[in-house]
Amino acid sequence: MKLSTRARYALRAMLELARLGKDNGPINLNVISQKTSISRRYLEQVLIPLKNANLVKGVSGKNGGYLLAKAPDEIKVGDIIETAIGKINIVDCVNDPDSCPKAELCECRSLYQMINNKIVDAINEFTLADLSDKRQMERLGEEL
Predict the structure, then answer these.
(1) 3-state SS track over 102-143
(2) Rounded distance between C-alpha atoms, residue 27 and residue 30, angstroms
(3) Annotated domain spans of the chain
(4) Spatial distance between the Cα atoms of 30 and 39, rounded to a whole number of angstroms
(5) Whole-angstrom Cα distance, residue 94 to residue 113?
(6) pLDDT in tens, 20-47
(7) Is 5-136 in CATH node 1.10.3720.10?
(8) What b/e string do you get for 70-99 counting C-beta neighbours within 10 Å, with b at 16 or more?
(9) Contact 119/88 with Cβ under 8 angstroms?
(10) Which candidate, 29, 16, 1, places its Cα nearest to that of 128?
(11) Quick one: DSSP state of residue 58?
């Protein structure tokens, strides 16, 4: 499975909001764009579903911008990814058996379901707070 650009950019934007917005209030979209190297225009598109999912808040006005709607330790990485790209579904028949006439007889479908479940479990194991802790993530990478 390959994570889409939209999912990766959503993670990067949320990570910057977690880092920059700790005590600073709303973060201007231009600042997020500069820090993440994501165009402002694309960030606007990425942040809309995150706002609709109540993961970020938008603040209007001169000192407006975006901030996290919840504490970083309350936001699962899976919530961010699935908000950006939709429900994890490596093969259509995993979540919609009716999409394939062979789903009930497919010898591979249980494998696809297992892989899908492991991906979902893995992305829900970590929070935005975990992701922002560089040392913890480096230790985890060394363990793998």
Answers:
(1) CCCCCCCHHHHHHHHHHHHHHHHCCEHHHHHCHHHHHHHHHH
(2) 8
(3) 5-136
(4) 9
(5) 6
(6) 877 778 999 999 999 999 999 999 999 9
(7) no
(8) eebeebbbbbbbbbbbeebbebebbeeeee
(9) yes
(10) 16
(11) E
